[in-house]
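dumping this here so i dont lose it
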């Protein structure tokens, strides 16, 4: 009995390897991400009625809708809050799902979208060997679509929950660099790994299975010099804050100079790193209707929760962090909407604003909404087609 060999295998045809999930995403002219509302209140400290919900089923529906629409990635925040959260009538962010566990669950129900876990790698008992093993496992379950948004932790009260004292800003990035160096070695080395560093040690450590594409995707969120240097060395995306606050015009003016340090640091490493920024989109059929909705959200601010949010940030964040995340210093009411910048208007206005963000040096957006399920559907039906027409999306 002879085996029939497909003609393509005998004709001398050369087949290009399939691009990795990350490579497919990087082919997009302008990346689209969704910042999941896995905490109560989502991203808006407003009491205006809406559907937004922290529960997994709601966030799973959002993720599947984002995947259907062709979004590139999803992730949620990681936070450690006391009883009552930020207080107010909403007990804002008292309840939240863990980003890492949520991402693991989403990997079983999705097929294309990148899934990013936000993890405070310097808190508590994390060891690089843990994350290397867990991450490689999720990499395989997801078909190479898993990644980590690595955060060092800038809130002093969070570190105290783990019995730790928050380290100085740049020192945290030094520890994080050692952590990622170990991850990379574990993910890429074929044999056992021994490493004696300043902060972690491991002896004859080994991780299998190997990640499908060298190493999983890495993101870090920063606006500081040390954070940009870290991102230039390790990250595929750097999630940046607005350097001036939520108003679009001053943000557009400041972005090129703000991100220059990241571009220069990446070029020095022989790398290209994409920047993504977090707008909250408030859209309606016309500019006037969108502005009217925006004003209703502002008018329903949970004032006590906003005051507590600002107080916790201002008293618990170090000077370097405060400079890096200057968008946290906002006028009264702006936290009722949320996000690093606000894009308000008709579908065409939103697309025009995204073009301007691209031209100012942003490679994509990580979107938040006020009423996530309703607003994501509006985005897919009315805004996304215009983005394609404008050349922002393939």
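and the seq i came up w/
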């Amino acid at each position: 009995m002879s085996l029939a060999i497909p003609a393509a295998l005998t004709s001398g045809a050369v087949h290009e390897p399939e691009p990795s999930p990350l490579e497919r995403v990087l082919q997009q002219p302008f990346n689209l991400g969704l910042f999941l509302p896995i905490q109560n209140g989502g991203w808006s400290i407003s009491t205006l009625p809406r559907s937004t919900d922290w529960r997994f089923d709601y966030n799973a529906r959002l993720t599947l809708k984002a995947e259907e629409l062709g979004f590139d990635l999803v992730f949620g925040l990681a936070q450690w809050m006391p009883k009552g959260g930020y207080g107010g009538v909403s007990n804002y962010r008292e309840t939240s799902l863990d980003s890492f566990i949520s991402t693991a669950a989403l990997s079983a129900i999705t097929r294309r979208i990148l899934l990013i876990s936000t993890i405070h790698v310097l808190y508590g008992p994390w060891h690089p060997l843990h994350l290397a093993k867990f991450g490689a496992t999720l990499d395989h379950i997801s078909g190479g679509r898993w990644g980590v948004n690595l955060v060092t932790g800038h809130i002093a009260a969070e570190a105290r929950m783990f019995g730790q004292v928050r380290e100085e800003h740049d020192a945290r990035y030094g520890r994080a660099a050692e952590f990622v160096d170990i991850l990379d070695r574990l993910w890429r080395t074929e044999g056992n790994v021994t490493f004696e560093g300043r902060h972690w040690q491991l002896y004859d450590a080994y991780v299998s299975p190997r990640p499908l594409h060298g190493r999983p995707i890495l993101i870090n969120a920063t606006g500081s010099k040390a954070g940009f240097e870290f991102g230039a060395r390790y990250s595929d995306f750097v999630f940046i804050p607005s350097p001036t606050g939520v108003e679009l015009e001053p943000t557009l003016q400041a972005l090129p100079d703000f991100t220059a340090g990241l571009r220069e640091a990446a070029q020095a490493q022989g790398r290209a790193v994409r920047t993504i920024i977090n707008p909250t989109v408030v859209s309606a059929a016309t500019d006037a209707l969108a502005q009217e909705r925006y004003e209703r959200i502002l008018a329903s601010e949970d004032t006590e929760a906003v005051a507590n949010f600002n107080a916790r940030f201002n008293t618990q964040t170090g000077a370097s962090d405060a400079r890096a995340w200057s968008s946290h210093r906002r006028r009264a009411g702006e936290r009722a909407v949320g996000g690093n910048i606000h894009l308000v208007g008709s579908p065409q206005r939103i697309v025009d604003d995204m073009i301007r963000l691209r031209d100012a040096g942003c490679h994509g957006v990580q979107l938040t909404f006020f009423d996530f399920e309703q607003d994501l559907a509006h985005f897919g039906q009315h805004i996304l087609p215009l983005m394609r027409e404008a050349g922002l999306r393939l």
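The first strand starts at residue 31 and ends at 35.
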